[in-house]
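Why does this matter for the project? Reviewers at the last site visit asked to see concrete outputs rather than summary tables. In response, this paragraph embeds two records directly. Each consists of the residue sequence and, immediately after it, the corresponding structure tokens. Nothing has been edited or filtered.
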Amino acid sequence: MAKIDVIMPQMGESITEGTLSKWLKKVGDPVKRDEPIFEISTDKVDAEIPAPMAGVLAEVLVQEGQTVAVQTVVARIETDAAAVSAPAPTPAAIVPPVPPPAAPAPPARVEPVPALPLVAPPAPAAAGDESLEDRLRRKSSPLVRKMAAEHQLDLSAIPGSGLAGRVTKGDVLSYLEKGPPPVAPPAAAAPMVPASPVAGAVHLIPGPVVEPWEGDRVEPWSRIRKLTADHMIMSRRVSAHVQSVIEIDYTRVGQLRAAKKADYAGRGVNLTYLAFIAKAVADNLRKHPVLNAAVMGESTVFRREINLGVAVALDWGLIVPVIRHADELSLLGLARAISDLAERARTKRLNPDEIQRGTFSITNPGGFGTFIGLPVLNQPQSAILAVGTIEKRPAVITAPDGTDALGIRTKGMLALSFDHRIVDGADADRFLADLRKSLEGFAENAT
């Protein structure tokens, strides 16, 4: 018999640690090769990690809730020695492929992260003088770098509690709440001048004190719930949220869907109303670039790529996988991408890069019967579209001769939340008007 190490995988090139959130197997349980044995959470994604080899889970070295560095041995699997004569693949193999650079990089080199906007980067160390710990400390997660940029903070000035002193999201939040540590006054007594507040510091208002009553159930937040809460509070704080709502007649879309649904099902794709809406959004964003933009300081970044994030409700939270280059996909391609990403989100098989680089988001509360929703912006995007329930309703229909009659039409509401710092009401309304025109006159050749 032999024992195989199970390691904490690196879920993305900028990730240096992960939290083991749940063991799916117990010590003594048999495991199959590629069978999920534990779950991890990072700043980017939750994922199930498969066993590198079949055998029996012999040791558990990292307990649920612990955060450890990548490549840390978290468990050992006892297996037949003959089965491991060839090197066994490790969970690190699930790291998504990265396109090769123009010239190959030195294998052991860790590249420094780009300098943060509005913050002067620290002076680079001389070649060969920088330690691995120094490089790991500077290689903070994208979430941490984004928080620092938003509040104009220098990461080198924030004490880090992560691996090798790496600054974590909690360190940034604590720094914003408490400010920099006090500096000891000089030996000579001198009048103390009140210090100015830290640039970009936020004075967090504590919530009400809540105590559980007899019979209550207290459930600690999961990592994804904490990240969602922080992101939503930050979004409401930094953006001027405004909403516009428009009613859509989906009768034409409904007819096309009924005509094409069997053909799409034969190709393994479920044709939904959401696919038609995503197609109309992707086709119209190029004409309305400010809806596909982001705020950078006192500038607007107009994104060249059109990458649609589609929110997926999970039992343990909400995640927004991204369809890259959505404007280049047909209706069939969008329908297939929406179905695939939603399924892999629910089964914790998304790669970290599949929830990044979104430029516009769509959420579908109408799937639960909600008439209309007014969502919070998915920072740093400038707009998000909420799809209300689509159903048959009575409507006034005007005949070609100008007479009116009461008829039945398939209708629903679309609500657009936008950042009023860069998107004017007229911009949002023109975008919604074009969406309605595209959906109500959806061309059959667009399918």
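We now turn to the second protein, recorded in exactly the same manner.
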Amino acid sequence: MVVAGKTDRGAGREAVSMFVVDADAPGVTTRKLNTVGRHILGTYDVFYDNVFFPEDARLGEEGTGWNVVNQGLVKERLFGCSAYIGSLSTVLDLEVTYARERVQFGQSIGKFQAVSHPLADIYA
């Protein structure tokens, strides 16, 4: 795992560094969370109990971790949004197909404003 940790407890973000930590290291406990989506990645609670990060486990220079965290968050948000947009596009395609094929009162339900307008809003 890549972990952001402080090299000085009393300092602020200038003391944040990045470390590589084995998930099976002594004092590290993980617990998989049940989530509604994003099953392919897995989401975990990670607990640290007196875990020691040796200096050779540090990535980069000491104190540069905050910049790495910020850059990672920006990318994570971009990737997350693109995945959600892709999922929405797939769902919209399925809904439009259903609205065309489902017949009620002698016509496809997509011809009813109560169905077509929300689909158009999603598309827009």
